[in-house]
Amino acid sequence: MGQSLHVRDLKAWYGNHQTLRGISMEIPENRVTAIIGPSGCGKSTFIRCLNRLHETTPQGRVEGKVQLGDADVYEMDAVDVRRVIGMVFQKPNPFPTLSIYDNVAIGLKLGGMRDKSAQFERVEQSLRMAALWDEVKDRLHRPAVALSGGQQQRLCIARALAVQPNVLLMDEPASALDPISTARIEELVLSLKENYTIVIVTHNMQQAARVADKTAFFLNGELIEFGDTTSLFTRPQDNRTEDYITGRFG
Amino acid sequence: MNQSRRLRRKLGSWIGFGGSWLATALVLFSLVDMVATILWHGVLSFRPAMLWTVTSGNGGGLENAILGTLYLVFLAVVISAPLGILGGIFVSEFAGSRLASVIRFCTEGLSGVPSIVIGYFGYLFMVIRWGWEFSTLAGSLALTVIMVPYILRSTEASLQQVPHALREAAWGLGMTKSQAITRVIWKSGASGIITGVLLAVAIGLGETAPLLYTAGWSMYNPSLALTHHQIGYLTYVVWTYIDMPYNESHALAYSAACVLLVVILFIHLVLRTLVQRRWSRTH
Ligand SMILES: Nc1ncnc2c1ncn2[C@@H]1O[C@H](COP(=O)(O)OP(=O)(O)OP(=O)(O)O)[C@@H](O)[C@H]1O
Ligand SMILES: [Mg+2]
After folding, report:
1. B264 neighbors B74 (Cβ within 8 angstroms)
2. Is the model's pTM score more than 0.90?
């Protein structure tokens, strides 16, 4: 089941460079929340703080509070956090030395799923959800690097889905995909929200409008506006939001 | 105007080309000369029977030295590979940047120490103080000290070349740092690590100075005893027998050098194909 995320006064730095300037927002469970904003405004940094990946970057530092349901993410073990908050990265990053199958299965093996047929079932299911199964079912044991960029990204989505996290963070998952795969990913996102909480970063405002229940607009490391997607796009409260969604800057 | 500039540019590039060709030729020439001399004398003086007879008097065979070298280097690899690889993993993945640079500084210092000094320290401590006498263990440990820094540094370097995105992928999936290393990162760095170990083996095979002080010399085939028994090795034959006033001694020395050279060239051949394979896989 999805869990909600409460973010309170979240600040993040790279060395001395502050990229998040105190973000507070309530991300509802079993909903899709989109993050939009111009390049470099801190969208990736923000979602990387949610699964505690930001602190692993050299010089990366975080302050503030993130709560997953009732649990304080920054008091949990970071490894446990990342098992329940999955992530799809902006650039596809499959494990190059593993086969297509093992890329998806590795998380299951780590989680202790020994039964081979259960494993296979879950791998197939995840690859189907990521709209990749038909393209790879005949070559599951070939290396993952032999896939195209878009296929690699869908493989990464399948890898994240296989371990059935509660929250799924997606950093521009469709930016390397053709329109057909993009449409299938959007369908996937919509179908997943029954069971997952999804946070999706996107540059594509039509995409945000199509898939997201709520949308947040970031600018220069600040949360400018956060609300229901339809009202944010039709009746923005802040001039800067309006300028951005009407294409006047960014 | 335009034409003279073109001429000047051409001339300049010719001089540059000529200079670098000359420098390359000089290096190549001395290398080829050395390898050719050793191979020429070695092949002429080598008799297959040397492989299964031991050294005796001023000549004889190389069996004891070949087995001794293999035994010494084998022990040294068994000790230095785990140490160097684990150390390299530690420096690359776990040590903070402060500790990492301290360790890096120490290993660099260690690899800068002349090998004869390492041999002498080995002599003072292992041979004398700890009472092992000239022995296999003292010799392999001296080689270990020389080999560990190479393995450590090449392990660290090849792990550093694994893209950060790959670590993030592993961590993002809920792997611990050690799981990420053993299941994902290690494999991407493996050929670099193997390269480092092979390079260290090649270096260990060719070392003389540290062994002179620690392993001693024996005309008998090595025993399994680790201490209190001297052991023979190929570089000793090269080092000592070339200075003797007998033809059969020279023949033995050149044959030993030739055997070493062939083995080391072979290792470098393997290294090259490994490196090339890695290159073609990543590009
Ligand atoms: N590894 C890093 N080291 C230093 N600064 C960084 C690093 N990664 C990002 N930054 C800086 O942090 C700021 C926010 O970056 P972030 O990647 O979060 O932006 P973004 O909104 O995801 O942009 P994009 O839409 O281009 O992906 C930028 O100013 C960027 O220069
Ligand atoms: Mg980004």
Report:
1. no
2. no
